[in-house]
């Protein structure tokens, strides 16, 4: 991590926390150079980077200012509290009716789970695909099914190593996307009827998988910025026979919360004490806005208690359906379950990704993607501040492409969803993120699509509907 | 189906049944022309075809003879009988230890589940892949995940139609290979603890899936040529609360049995009477040796009671991991389960197959593949007759690439497996095909690889090991 990147991240944190408010002037180059003890050119480089990330903008002859989101920026949502209990899960029909609404390509896709496909290097991937299927030795189409493409395994292990996680190659199981990995992890450590701790709000697919496997949910509150409430988790682990935890420790979906390194270490200690395995869903890891990737809980794992799940679907190659899990002590069992479920992810897709990771310029693509997403986040935040009622609360995650809105208690998110859809706008209503159908006045909005006049207009329409409640 | 193909199939049936024995002269062209009431040129065409299929050979100035397998051809195995009971399944470790043995590329792959990858049009598929990823509109990588590639769905539905099965397009769910389809079908109609009727012997993955889903197996005996024992099934349906049947009605693995059309219709009536759904595993359908494809039970389905599962893995594109199910009344539930399990099979793999099915010459490839497999079957049968003890029994399926051997009761198939592996030869021992660990003196051998001196020598080695018991 270069000096100017570090400086940019420090200033970005000040902006994100609100200490440097929208419209405010950022310190002059001379001032910053003195404060941080770096050269003027380092400050310049940092400011260029922040401009590129959409956080600050230059005004002629006046220096740099924090990008103006609104006169009154929106506040952060508050963390839920309350007693935690085990719940049967029954959300699938609701979730599918919401997902079904996304089919129409003319709908404004604020409800989508994916960024715009135009943000991915699909032509370059197509070249990697063409080349690797042409050069593939015929025996590989069968041989690579059992353990996966060896070069892909090596490339994934290498990325773990570069981000400071030591991992024996044998722990890696290549899967048909992270969704299969998460399913297999859960099956490897639970029986029907068991209790699983999940986040509240949680990614709706988590709830669906629990429902499918007849597991009970123990919903642990998540702070919108700091992640899982450890006290609540500790209490639940004490009281309830929890068999596994399924958490997103970085860029949690839908809140975008990222736990600090210290908190991640504390989480690991807690789970280790109870010998409860952690399924760490880390599919947004590569979409951090700062220069430094967040470290997973897996990096503390000394006992193989953490199953760390990743994927290329959100950051490189949606539709290729290639993910993986670093399965710790459960790796062998996960690999066997995989052979009994789908046998293998597509061998050509694996080969294409292996080629791309070696020759395609993955890190260059990721840098560009992160800047685009961060800049689009700024656009949506600014638009929300313009069009949504002043009592609206919203997250401001340091990565990914989701914002979580908390509206006035009067707003019925499911009704909002239906009214918005009638106007050609999709969104993900709060109740699909909870087994207990909480978050009835919340919604997740996707800013993964290049900002345009249509989006701006859709935000204005949403604002009118919200105000009408 | 052309006249000469029909004639060829009639004579092939006589050879397969043993009425026309190895070494015997087939009727002269003039004689056959009179008997069957066809022109001499039709007979010539039929004989050329049979020669190509490896069933007869010409001798100079003497006419055509049934290809010589042995002085004494081996007999057909006998059907098991005995009381049928529900059994817990616990075979996975044994199966995985057998499958693990296949990793070494220098092993003679008689134990493999796949034909040789060299029998597939991989370079042509690679062209379809290169073209379709290059031309794919970017929105398709995300949009095609939910319902699958529309052109692939259309091509699959078309093939059903051409083989006489009427199918609403909505019944089709594209899956990550047939293995996922079968898993999802079973989950859509059972709960843990339920009873499922399967075949005995059964494809070992069937047993593994039952084990994984905590279902109990009711093993119905299979006749080596005629398939499922319907009386036994009727009795079991009467006595036991069976929730679903999972059968391969054509080219059953491992026996190669194919039920007649009449028997398939009777099976459907029986299941309809009990309102028990059928999961029809039909992944070898395209590998029939005759000109006419066997009709699935699905073709009788008037109530949506049959879930018909197919795949490209055994006949076109192993490793691409694309299969499907025509799910009848369960289609919606299966589609939902798929979205909660793997979301979607690889989108590029689907697009490549859609392109190949339109432009690649699939039927030409299949004709060639079938002739190769039939001819290799003849070679393995001949080799077995030369090298295996005379009391060995063997199947002679009308398609696919497996032979099922029944050895003297003295032979311990697991011991045979270990001894053979020590000599660099893999095979699939009988006990992995049964929840009750039956078939202890049986084995499945794969003839899906072009016959060569190494195979011949491996058969001789196996023969010596078998005789040593």
From TrEMBL, chains A, B:
Question: At the top level of its lineage, which domain of life is listed?
Answer: Bacteria
InterPro entries per the record?
A: Aminotransferase_I/II_large, HTH_trans_reg/aminotransferase, PyrdxlP-dep_Trfase, PyrdxlP-dep_Trfase_major, PyrdxlP-dep_Trfase_small, Tscrpt_reg_HTH_GntR, WH-like_DNA-bd_sf, WH_DNA-bd_sf
Q: Which UniProt keywords apply?
A: Aminotransferase, DNA-binding, Pyridoxal phosphate, Transcription, Transcription regulation, Transferase
- Which molecular function GO terms apply here? DNA binding; DNA-binding transcription factor activity; pyridoxal phosphate binding; transaminase activity
Q: Where is the HTH gntR-type domain?
A: 1-69
Q: Which family does it belong to?
A: In the C-terminal section; belongs to the class-I pyridoxal-phosphate-dependent aminotransferase family.
PANTHER family reported in the protein's UniProt record: HTH-TYPE TRANSCRIPTIONAL REGULATORY PROTEIN GABR, TRANSCRIPTIONAL REGULATORY PROTEIN
Name of this protein: Transcriptional regulator, GntR family
What organism is recorded for this protein? Phytopseudomonas argentinensis
């Amino acid at each position: 991590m270069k000096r100017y990147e570090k400086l940019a991240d420090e200033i970005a944190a000040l902006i994100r926390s609100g200490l440097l408010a929208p419209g405010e002037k950022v310190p002059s180059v001379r001032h910053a150079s003195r404060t941080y003890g770096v050269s003027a050119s380092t400050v310049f480089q940092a400011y260029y980077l922040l401009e590129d990330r959409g956080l600050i903008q230059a005004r002629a002859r006046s220096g740099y200012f924090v990008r103006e989101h609104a006169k009154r920026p929106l506040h952060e949502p508050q963390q839920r509290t309350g007693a935690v209990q085990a719940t049967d899960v029954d959300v699938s029909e609701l979730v599918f009716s919401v997902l079904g609404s996304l089919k129409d390509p003319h709908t404004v896709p604020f409800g989508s789970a994916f960024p715009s496909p135009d943000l991915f290097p699909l032509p370059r991937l197509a070249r990697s695909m063409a080349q690797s299927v042409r050069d593939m030795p015929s025996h590989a189409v069968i041989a690579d099914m059992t353990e996966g493409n060896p070069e892909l395994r090596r490339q994934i292990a290498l990325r773990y190593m570069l981000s400071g996680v030591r991992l024996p190659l044998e722990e890696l199981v290549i899967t048909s996307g992270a969704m299969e990995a998460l399913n297999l992890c859960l099956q490897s450590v639970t029986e029907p009827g068991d209790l699983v701790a999940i986040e509240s709000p949680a990614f709706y697919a988590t709830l669906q998988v629990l429902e499918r496997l007849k597991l009970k949910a123990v919903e642990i509150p998540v702070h919108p910025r700091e992640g899982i409430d450890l006290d609540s988790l500790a209490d639940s682990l004490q009281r309830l026979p929890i068999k596994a935890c399924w958490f997103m420790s970085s860029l949690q979906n839908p809140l975008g919360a990222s736990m600090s390194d210290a908190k991640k270490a504390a989480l690991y200690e807690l789970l280790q004490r109870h010998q409860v395995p952690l399924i760490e869903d880390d599919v947004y890891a590569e979409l951090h806005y700062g220069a430094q990737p967040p470290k997973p809980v897996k990096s503390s794992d000394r006992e193989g208690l953490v199953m760390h799940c990743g994927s290329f679907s959100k950051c490189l190659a949606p539709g290729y359906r290639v993910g993986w899990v670093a399965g710790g002590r459960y790796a062998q069992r996960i690999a066997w379950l995989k052979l009994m479920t789908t046998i293998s992810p597509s061998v050509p897709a694996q080969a294409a990704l292996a080629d791309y990771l070696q020759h395609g310029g993955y890190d260059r693509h990721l840098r560009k993607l992160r800047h685009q997403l961060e800049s689009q986040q700024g656009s949506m935040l600014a638009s929300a501040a313009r069009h949504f009622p002043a009592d609206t609360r919203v997250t401001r995650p340091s990565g990914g492409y989701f914002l979580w809105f908390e509206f006035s208690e009067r707003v019925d998110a499911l009704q909002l969803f239906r009214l918005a859809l009638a106007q050609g706008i999709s969104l993900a209503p709060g109740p699909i993120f909870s087994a207990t159908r909480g978050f009835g006045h919340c919604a997740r909005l996707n800013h993964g699509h290049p900002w345009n006049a249509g989006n701006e207009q859709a935000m204005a329409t949403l604002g009118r509907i919200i105000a009408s409640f």
